[in-house]
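Tutorial handout. Part one gives the primary structure; part two gives the three-dimensional structure as tokens.
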Amino acid sequence: MDVFGHVNHANLVTLLEEARVPLLFEEAGQAGLELAKGMVVVKLAVHYRSPIVVRGQRVRVEISLRELKAASLTLDYRVHTGPSPEDKIAVVADTVLAPYEVATERPRRFTDAERAFLGEKLAGGDD
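Part two.
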């Protein structure tokens, strides 16, 4: 939170990360995939429509898959000011992520199983 009681930029970026971790790491791991062993953010864009004022309420983060390529994916985010889909959208953002081979320090391509998982889980958007 900043001095005006708003969620500041650094915290908003962390919120986006925390919203995608359960899917990309926990659910993928349960599906036998190892996305958690190497995924890097290639690009991040955040567009603020209005501030998110901290009042102790939960916010809603909706994630959808915009594009899935052989070696990257683009996620779109909509951050609402409250927990309901009817709450005002305060932030829209997107990240480009790429699978990364930690041992060789090189990017890699998604496996067929990873592509199927990501396409299925993010096809209609995920909260």
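Part three, for discussion. The longest helix spans residues 9-30. The two ends are 23 Å apart (CA to CA).
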